[in-house]
Structure formats: C-alpha cells, structure tokens
Amino acid sequence: MLEPVDFGAAAGAPSAVMRRWQGNGIYFGGDYNPEQWPEETWSEDVELMRRAGVNLVSVGIFSWALLEPAPGRFEFGWLDRVLDLLHDGGIQVDLATATASPPPWLARAHPEMLPRRADGAILWPGGRQAYCPSSPVFRERSLELVRAVAGRYAEHPAVVMWHVSNELGCHNAHCYCDVSAEAFRGWLRERYGDLDRLNDAWGTAFWSQHYGDWAEINPPRTVTAFANPTQQLDFLRFSSDELRAQLRAEREVLKTLVRQPITTNFMIGMGVKHMDYQSWADDVDLVSNDHYLTAADPQAHLGLSFAADHTRGVAGGDPWLLMEHSTSAVQWQPRNVAKLPGQLRRNSLAHVARGADGVLFFQWRASRAGAEKFHSALVPHAGPDTKVFREVCQLGADLKALAEIRGSRVDADVAILFDWEAWWAVELDSHPSVDITYADRVNALYGALWRAGVTADIVHPSADLSGYRLVLAPTLFLVRDADADALRRFVEAGGTAAVTYFSGIVDPDDHIRLGGYPGAFRDLLGVRTEEFFPLREGERVRLDDGSTADVWTEWLHADDAEVLASYTDGPLPGVPALTRRPVGAGAAWYVGTRLDEPATDRLVARLLDEAGVRPAAPAPTGVEVVRRRDGERSWLFAINHTDAEVRLPAHGDELLTGARCAGELTLPAGEVAVVREDRT
Ligand code: GAL
Predict the structure, then answer these.
(1) Would you say domain 21-174+242-407 falls under CATH 3.20.20.80?
(2) Cβ(32) to ligand 1 under 6 A?
(3) Would you say the CB of residue 362 lies under 6 angstroms from ligand 1?
(4) In the structure, how many helices (H) and strands (E) does the chain have?
(5) Location of each CATH 3.40.50.880 domain in the chain
(6) Is 537 a catalytic residue?
(7) How far apart are CA 81 and CA 92, in angstroms?
(8) Which positions fall inside the Beta-galactosidase trimerisation domain (predicted)?
C-alpha cells in the first residue's frame, strides 16, 4: 500500500508538487467510472487494481447528472462508498470537479447556454460538453457543483489530486452565439482599449470594415468572402482564454476549500489546435496530458514522443503526468487498430522516458454501453484473463521497478520553438499555399532528431534558450519582436539556430513585416526574400547538393550569408535555397524550401554536428534512446521499435530485468530497457 500523501499547506510550482509525491512508486491507473456498473462490481475492481499495481484513479469526471440529478439536489452516497472502498484498498484518487458535461436538466432550463456553430446551428445535448464556454449560467452552476464536491471531499483521505473538468474545449472550443459575441466584445475592449486601436490592428481600412461602435463587432461567423484574418486570430485567442477562464474559476473555488494539487488534462500533441496550453500552464499545479496514437500512422510512436516532449516543454521541463492513453484500440478513429503485444509497454514507458512521473489510461473497465463501448480499457470486456490485463499487470510491475526515477529530468540540448499563436496565424486562409501547415516542418525536424537519437524540448519562443546548443524555428510565421530578439541573442552567444521558410512574416496583429521576408529574422539570417514562388501540387525541384524539395521556393538574396545550396531547376534556378550566416560566436541557418526526408535528415545531422550535440547513446535506427537525470544519477531508456535484437553501449544496472550491463546492453526486438548508469 502507498503511503498517504502530504501535499503541505498549498500546492506550488509543478516540480514542487511532483516532488512532494510521497508514494513509493510512479502513478499508475486510469479513469474509473464505477457509476456505469452495479455496486457488486466495485470490490472486484479494487481487488483487480491491487493485483495490477494501480495506485491512482480519476473518479467522477462525467458524474454531474448523477451527483446533482435535479437543480440543487445532490446525491453523494454512491461516491462516498466508492471513495471509501478505494481508500480501504490503498488506491488514491484524482477527484474530478465533475463539471465536464452538464446534465440534461440544465440545458432544458437554459437553452441559451448551448453552443452555436459559425453558421448559427445549435449543438444539442446528447453528446458531451454541450455548453457555451462564455455562458454565465454554465459558469454559475458548474462552480456551485465544484463547491459542493470540494466541500464534501476536501478532507477525504483517498483524494490526492483534483481534476478540473475534462479536456476543456475538446468539443466546444468555439462558440458563436450572442452571449459569446458579447463576451468577445468585452475581451476586445480589454485588449485594445479603444476602437481606433482595434481598427488599426484589424486593418479595417480594407473592404469597408471600419467599426464605429463596439456593438457592430461579431465573432467571425459564416461570411460571404474571406473573414478578416486578425478578427479570426483574435477570436481564436479569445476562445482559448474563455476556456482558460473556466479552469481558473474552478481553481479559485478549489483553492478556498482544498489543499491537494490541482490539474486539468491537456491534449498536447494530437493536432489539437484550439487551446494555447502554454498560456494555461500557470493555472495548474502539475501539467497533465492525454495522448492517443494515430492508428493510421505507421510512425505513430514518433507522434507519441513529440507529444511527450511538448508536454514537458509546456511544464517548463518539470515532471508531468500522463492522465490518459489507451491500453489498445480507441473507438473514435476510422479504423481502430489494436496494439500488438509489447506495444502498450513501449508506449507507456516512452512517456516515462520523456518525463512522465505517472501513466494513467482511459479507462479502468471497458464500458458495456454508450459511445465508447468499443474503446479499450485496463479490464477488457473479456475480463482479466486477457493479453491486455496481463500487460497491464506487467506494466504495474515495471513502474514499481522504476520508482527511483521519479522527479528526475530529461536531458535535451536541442529546442524546437512552438507557439500556438503562430500555428493559428499560419493556417488562416488567403495565404500563398494551402500546402503550408504548422505541423509539417515541426514534425519533419522532430522526426530527423528522433531518427538521430537526439531528444528535443518543444518550447515556446519566449522560453529561456540559454541551456541549449541548437534551436530550431520551423514555420514561425507570427513572432513577437522580443522572441525574435531572444533567438538572435542565443546565436550571438554561441548557439546554432535554423529557421525554416514562412517564418518571421507577421507581427502579433498579423501585419506583414515590411522590407523583405523573413521579416523578423532577416537581419539575423542575412537573407532577404523579395517574392514567394510556391510550387504546384506534386511539383518537385532539385538543389545543387543533390537534395529534392517540393511545396515552396522563394526568390531569396543571400546578401550577408553563405550559400550552402541553390536550386538547379524549377522556377528559380541558381537562387539560394539553404544559407548559413556566422553571427557572434554562433551561426544562423535558413532553409528556404521544403526539403524531403533524406535531405532533412542530412541537414539536421550537419546542424547537430556544428552544435556539438550527440545522441543519448549510439543506437541503430528505430531504437529510441532518452536519458533522465537527477543530479549525479542518470538513467538511460532504450526502446526497441524494430523487429531485430540490437546492442548498444551501456554501463550499469538494468532496472526492469535486474541484469547487469557491463559495457553493452542487448535489447530484443520490441523490448524496453532502463539502465541506471554507473557514475563515472
Ligand atoms: C478523451 C476523453 C475521455 C475519453 C477518451 C477516449 O478525449 O478525455 O473521456 O473520451 O478520450 O479516447
């Protein structure tokens, strides 16, 4: 059984919270929805949890309709019994505020709280999250529920953490109703103060859009032609802030009643675009994240690693919690591919390698009814005598063996800059090519680093860059002056930076930076582009270093930079495509086209070489290597995604098997090893 947790008088910074976790292991468990089952099942649940080594479950996430079956009438009896049972079994609880999905009676009494799409269509109850994030009714009723739940369970000995709502904005990130319109106007007044400033920022001299009264402004509802881009960008900012306001409001209430740390599950790394989680990170005591593999992607484990590295970046490098992933298939993709034997272990431990101090799943027991009945769980429909449950038990044992790594941090000499605002802005309409997406170059550079065995932190451009050797800025279309300046200072101080095309183009108002592209980075890179030459669909160009590229070329002058490669064909033969400029003690590279994968790998290899960055361990392609460190101590994670046994150099004790590595680690196909490295 785990020791009770004492989180002290107040939850503090994320690392402080994770470090105060006094249990004797890494968190392991998942969403537990006992309300879907008869009470007789509950004791078997606890018994199986103990057998698997589960030590933390999230309870009550979608329980509002059962906890408050009628306005103001609360029924806590069943939850009392569940929490007591879990506590008696030594299982700790991450208790939800239960506000994730409002009960049907609330929408019936207040239909004005239902969200509306841009075309005015109402999104009705019957799914989940059917509420407008700006609705005062929803806010008031949800906070009453938080007060009731927190008031009742603040001192319950099983509760070690609070779980605000669930995946805020997963289904209702943008609401265009009249209530939202009014809230949007309020947000704009705060941002701009007066209409002149708004008219200037939105460039309303264009197309007769000038506003003379705040009441004339609406969310970017369905329009005749292209909607004003800055209006769209501000609406995305506003919408993220409105959801964040719900998190903050619930947190404020919790803070007056409870002492345990507070989190909410983010959805970093699955293409979830609408919430600027970097700006939310200060509103949680520890960062937690949900991640699901994209079944259609044969390289889905790269997506997983990226999500984990990005979550760690949002957490400022501190340990974080994987709140949800799946033991096998999900039910919401077109073809829900099941995990092969061993994949669950590789997936879960890859998150741990990349900084997770806990791995939880959706969900404990597979539902027998409802939209998620074909979603995998820790206990499948077929029961515990299954591949999945056996692997769950194995994972429980693995995590126990890894207890000592808790609180350690991940080594990374490379940073990739990532900004939700740049993502929003670069994917607005009316741009030079629909083939430019934010994820494209981010993933391309990340993939090249992954294949090279090099761990990267995915961080906001305003992060402290001084600890890195190499910083990559893919498609940083929108950038603030201060952040562009920080990259310059990083290079001057000896760092290597690489910027890819369509970066530095606009300021935070989405106004072009004049004088030649890539505006904000022009001086640093020593290049000036006078015109873009996007390519036709499927068109490819060749470079004089043998590389091929597609999607994008530009008429670039390398006025103050060395030319490393130029086009040999396409619209711009002889024009530079890849440049490098020595700056202070470092160097700044520019990549003006969309290099194919081998060329991107070669480019990244050169950058790593110049920056003096080495992989965590020399490993064959397809073997993931990551190092966690705590002061003098370090652990090397090796995950073999290939079909062959591999060998890598390692000195120390392998924690999952107890074997000694005297110079070499032998890792069978599909296996994972964690070596506590000898101190040299
Ligand atoms: C998450 C959600 C869970 C469950 C899961 C299924 O988005 O938080 O409640 O729906 O997906 O994969």
Answers:
(1) yes
(2) no
(3) yes
(4) 18, 27
(5) 414-611
(6) no
(7) 14
(8) 412-613
